[in-house]
Amino acid sequence: MKRLILASMLAAAPVVANADRVPDPNPTAASTPNPAAFPVTIAIDAGRPGKIVDPVWRFFGADEPNYATMKDGRTTLATLGALAPDQVYFRTHNLLTSGDGTPALKWGSTGIYGEDANGAPVYDWTVVDRIFDTYRARGIKPYVELGFMPEALSTRPIPYQHDWRPGSGTLRTGWAYPPRDYDRWETLIYQWVRHCIDRYGRDEVASWYFETWNEANLPQYYWGGTRAEFFRLHDAAIRGVRRALPQARVGGPDSAGAGDDFLTAFMAHAQAAGTPTDFLSFHAKGQPDVIQDATGRHVRMGLNTHLKAADHEFAAIAASPAFRNKPIIIGESDPEGCAACQGPANAYRNGTMYSSYTAASFPRLLALAERRSLTLRGILTWAFEFEDQPPFAGFRQLTSNGIDLPVMNMFKLFAKLTGRYVPAVSDHQLGLDAVMRDGVRGAADVGSVASIDGRSLAVLVWHYHDDDLPGPDAAIRLRLRNLPPAFARGALVTQYRIDGMHSNSFAAWRAMGSPLAPTDAQRATLLKAAALATIGTTPIRLSPRQGDADLAFDLPRQGVALLVATPPSG
């Protein structure tokens, strides 16, 4: 049976899928050839279309709002917007923070509000307009976070800007406190939404999401008031939005999935106060660690922690008759908690560990929501880019210096899953409960989802493991069953691939010696390596018999493949 990749290419390939490992002073384990590939069978029933594919992947965000208007920020936004024009949403902190718009790690500002010598409000939309204009010019809509507190309104304005840096400093300063005047806070929101309507149109602004603040249940970081003060802040903000635009889509609370009762209390408060709530939002994060064992030091991901955090919040929503039918957005969903932090446990970010983790986690988050009969509308990736940093600096980001990372290519694959889901069953996909309990620490997780859209069948396959160590390839046998009549004369199959050799700018950068300042020629090479790659130069022709067809390919550990089958034209 014909394989879609050449075995000789695999044998010669360096182990770069795991090239973002913590350096091992004794790298003999990393240089040992992989064992023989293990067999995996995946069955796709193209004749049983089910639920519509909801593009839950199309939400992104970042701490630093002003990066959006900078050179690499504009490029990154253009890539995201092109995936699903006018369907991609972006959430950011600091849209109401005082300052001149100069960004820093976990900081940004717009100077949207001040007061004159007589104490009268002064509104300045210049910087925030520039940010939203940049979104809209690239087909992206705002997921509007109503925060943080302008200096002139803060109850504790001094010191105002934090001095946080990775590993030290204080994050919670004047920007994080309740307003000294809730009426002025509400009026600020009202005036801003009115201005947005004037600038972008009522129907456009009605298509946005509006929520208040960020992770107010973590008082040591983002909120300097009490729970009751946050609820008051939220109510006033939503009144301001709805007073300007009665049909605005409002919700919250974008709380951290910390295993507490904050979301339950929020729902109880919103119901008792009659605060409009069109959607619910919370955050869920994993917890990678550095493991020292016989192989040396390596990163171990925490997929089970991520899923447990989400399911705790899902359970709270499912238990509420008043809210269990509301759409849900996981307003930050990531392998760990701090995009601007660096360190050994975050060494997974540049390579294929991040992309395969993303492939394995998104379908399971959907499955958890479906298990509780909930509607998960969005999974927001809190990763963007960090302007003017060294290449591949180890931040949680989608691009580095305007060059796509493997995880960005993962979203390009997600964008190709359209139409309706069809059954996809892998004999090596670990069960949901097993992954929640144990993670992926023993056998690898080789899973699949598939969709059919008119004359196109798309099959996504991932090969994931929590441990960032070399491992055997998966020898995939893909069984396509009950293909539509349009496939009677065969099919053309294109395989897109993310692995150590494909769609991988980080591997290419390491291969050229990890230059701190790539030349123009090197940058051109990196951009080419960053593009979403296909296996082979021409599509593969299948000959299905009685609506069935089989094909085979090898998938390296931490690799992701998307196979798109279409009937021949004519």
TrEMBL record:
Transmembrane segments: none annotated. Coiled coil: none annotated. It comes from the Bacteria. Its EC number is 3.2.1.37. One of its GO terms (biological process) is carbohydrate metabolic process. Residues 1-19 form the signal peptide. Keywords: Glycosidase, Hydrolase, Signal. It is an enzyme of class 3 (hydrolase). Belongs to the glycosyl hydrolase 39 family. This is Xylan 1,4-beta-xylosidase. It comes from Sphingomonas abaci. The lineage of its organism: Bacteria, Pseudomonadati, Pseudomonadota, Alphaproteobacteria, Sphingomonadales.
